[in-house]
Amino acid sequence: MNGYTQRIQPGRPAGDVVIVGGGPVGHRLAERLHHHGHQGTVTLLDAEPGHAYHRVLLTSVLDGGLDPADLELPPVPGARGRRDVRVTGVDRRRQRVGTANGESHRYDTLVLATGAEPRIPAVPGMHTASGRLIDGITGLRSLADCARVRGERVVVLGAGPLGVETAVALRRSGRDVSLVHPGPHPLNRWLDATAGDLLARHLVSLGIRVETGRSAARVEAGELVLDDGGLLTWDTLVCCTGTEPRTELARAAGLRVRTGVLVDGEMRTSDPHVRAVGDCAEHPGWFPGLLASGWDQADLLARTLTGHRSGGRRPRTVLRLRVPGLHLGVLGRPGLHREAGAAEGDVVTFSDPSRGRYATLAVDPAGRLSSAVLVGLPQALATLTQLHDARRPLPDDRLALLLGETAVGRRTSVLPPQDADTVLCRCNNVTALTLTGAWQNGSRSLRALADTTRVTTGCGTCADQIRELCAQLATAEKPVARHEPPVDARASGR
Amino acid sequence: MTTPQRLVIIGYGMTAHRLIEDLRSRDREGCWRITVVGEEPRLAYNRVALTDRLAGATERDLALAGPELLGDPLVESRTATRATGIDRASRTVLTTDGAPLPYDALVLATGAVAFRPPVPGADLPGCLPYRTLADVDAIRSAAVPGEPVVVVGGGLLGLETAEALRRHLGMRPYVVEAAPRLMPAQLDAPAARLLAVRLRHAGLRLHCGVPLRCVEADADGRVCGVRLEDGTRIATRLVVFSAGIRPRDDLAEPAGLARGERGGFLVDGHCRTPAPDIWAVGDCAALRGRCHGTVAPGYRMAEAVAGQLLGAPAEGPGLAADETDTVLKVPGTEVASVGDAHARTPGAVELSYTQGAQGSPETRYAKLVLDSDARVLLGAVLVGHGRAHPLLRSVLGRELPSSPEHLLLGEPRR
């Protein structure tokens, strides 16, 4: 028995892996396969031209914070990455995929990571007679979409996470922004009325025109007519009204598809040689469209394909809204405990409207967090995220947990100070220890740390914490009177 | 011995009784001779315990005055007598008895009447207010076990009345409340929802958020049903009004005394009207402009006036206008509300705990209102936390001595 048989499941080598779709999740899978020492080739095919890029950070391009070049994902060592190659068919019998330019790639394992297409609502006037979208209307899924945003006045349709982040980014770029949404408040599928209201008020305070309880009735040249007759003028109309998983390949190949490609807990489709991950995949227990979820799926799949045990982990449902000045996070699926017949266990709610803070936690009978919504409580969000990830029970004193202090007497921190093992960048699983090491090896800025450890390149919300760590490390390095003998003296035994 | 001064009290309810009791026990030297004038044909009785009357309690059971007070030479009670006016110039009270009553000090304790919604049919035979012993006796005679009864008013009193009608007289109560939820003055929305679950589980039917449109009569002109604003019709022969009270302040205007914005004799934090020798206490008093309808504030007012009559200076701001501490006396509900339950204090924060599923009568709820530092307890709303209520009441206005979980649940869970 050599070391290899411990890592590759006997009889089921993953072999040559072809990944269709080189977006963040497909890219992540390729990278993780390499990381886990995958034996066999990895081919990564993507239909978009140009470099692979981190789609989640598109809104940073919109607000001018990042250049498109900043979004580029580095090439995966050991993988064959092909861009501008559209896969047109899957031959499951021969285990081959064919492309538009006549290539044919053989696979032992095929992974569909084709993502999702922006859904454009069927509003009269949006399309020309020939079925094309009229000028100025776009989804927000690609760099090309970003380039289509022009002019001063932008109307964003849909106030889910993407719509809200898009509206905020456009507002930060100085534009006149309106946000139209049929629900009673933004992110109404995630947030209860109180949290939704706080979010709406914050958006209004940024100068965004928020039209909730409204939908688009008709599009005319440069004008949007709402269902109540209201009019909004637009130079660009951005549709953030949901996405449709790209399932054409799967359907054509005879795989089981509902809204997305149906998969089991190990991302297997109805064909054991074909898996699906990310926005194109559908599993009853998972929430589609979240980066954390897609990346977790990629991590799990890479471990499975390289013979590692998954350790019983499931993809997390974590949403951190990237809206500056508002710390809003959702863990798990809060709607579940509000639905009929649900929830044993407790619900703990904290409301501080005068300071814009709110939290609602659903705790299961074993004391662990089932789901949570937090606004304006960044420390608690970080702590609860860790406890949620690790499935550890919450401490008894929830008020202290939420406010980071005991309710009794002096303000002392109930929680232990950050230790080396604390994960600061969850997207990339980077600990304080790793960061400290990188710092000591010369990565002395946020940018440098991002290059060496990949922190802040996921959802981007760890940036503040990392900056704080940098400040602490910088202070710690200031010369201090030493009372110990220098190292050489000790080594030489004196 | 100097001649005692004359105190006249108009109204002989629970607050007047407390005033008399308190004054007599502290007035060692007999400074005051008291004449209390009461409209009802009986001595003061425990109005709060009227639901026991539904169960058959006697007048003796409900009576408040003990033999000591009854034999007291310095207390004269004139029952079945109504005060008709106050002559401030001559300092006398006019009554239905005839001769004017002179006073050195006058305390108004006229109480309140049950509010009857001004809808068609509200005074038909079969519609009864719920306020006095006579009212309750009338309800008892009209009650038929197994039959429906519509109780108008889903506040504290309405719910206690409905439950008592069910428990003691075997009737089938329908509670109609115009506000969107039960006990809106004391409870927040989650607590009101859980209370509704518990009450329904106990056999009460509830209609919230719909006002009463009219009371319908049959061919004989007696009540045969009620109709709500949304068209719902409830068949019934008995309608009980427990939809709030209105202070009895008709003596104010002729006597030149100010009234509160929403009625009642306007008094300051020491229960003083603008007239230096006239006070008002209990349900008829608008303490700093605000009327109360529960017994605890009334008792505090009575004690404050007794003190002043015995020479205690009226210093400082006096009583606060909006202290609340209410417990719903319906078995199995364990519903209580203390202090600033609606977090109206600027900067206040709220912390709530719900244990159990939404629709279960076992589900418990506690909401603590804290100051902006989240340290001092300002108020609380409780459902199903009977044990924690007295503890929280004692912490009101002070820093939490331990974690909320510990206060509510005792031992740490796990």
Automatic annotation (TrEMBL), chain A:
Keyword annotations from UniProtKB, A to Z: Heme, Iron, Iron-sulfur, Metal-binding, Oxidoreductase
UniProt pathway: Nitrogen metabolism; nitrate reduction (assimilation)
Domain BFD-like [2Fe-2S]-binding, first and last residues per copy: 424-469
Keyword Chloroplast applies: no
Gene3D superfamilies (alphabetical): BFD-like [2Fe-2S]-binding domain, FAD/NAD(P)-binding domain
Stored SUPFAM superfamilies: FAD/NAD(P)-binding domain
GO molecular function annotations of the record: iron-sulfur cluster binding; metal ion binding; oxidoreductase activity
Keyword Iron-sulfur in annotation: yes
FAD/NAD(P)-binding domain ranges (all copies): 16-284
InterPro entries according to UniProt: BFD-like_2Fe2S-bd_dom, BFD-like_2Fe2S-bd_dom_sf, FAD/NAD-bd_sf, FAD/NAD-binding_dom, NasD-like
Cofactor: [4Fe-4S] cluster; siroheme
Coiled coil (UniProt feature): none
Membership in a protein family: Belongs to the nitrite and sulfite reductase 4Fe-4S domain family.
Designated name of the protein: FAD/NAD(P)-binding oxidoreductase
Upper classification of the organism: Bacteria, Bacillati, Actinomycetota, Actinomycetes, Kitasatosporales
Gene of this entry: nasC
Automatic annotation (TrEMBL), chain B:
FAD/NAD(P)-binding domain residues: 6-288
Name of the protein in question: FAD/NAD(P)-binding domain-containing protein
SUPFAM superfamilies, A to Z: FAD/NAD(P)-binding domain (SSF51905)
Organism: Streptomyces aurantiogriseus
Metabolic or biological pathway, per its Swiss-Prot or TrEMBL entry: Nitrogen metabolism; nitrate reduction (assimilation)
Pfam families: Pyr_redox_2
One GO MF term: oxidoreductase activity
Keyword terms of this UniProt record: Heme, Iron, Iron-sulfur, Metal-binding, Oxidoreductase
InterPro entries: FAD/NAD-bd_sf, FAD/NAD-binding_dom, NasD-like
Cofactor: siroheme
PANTHER family in alphabetical order: NITRITE REDUCTASE (NADH) LARGE SUBUNIT
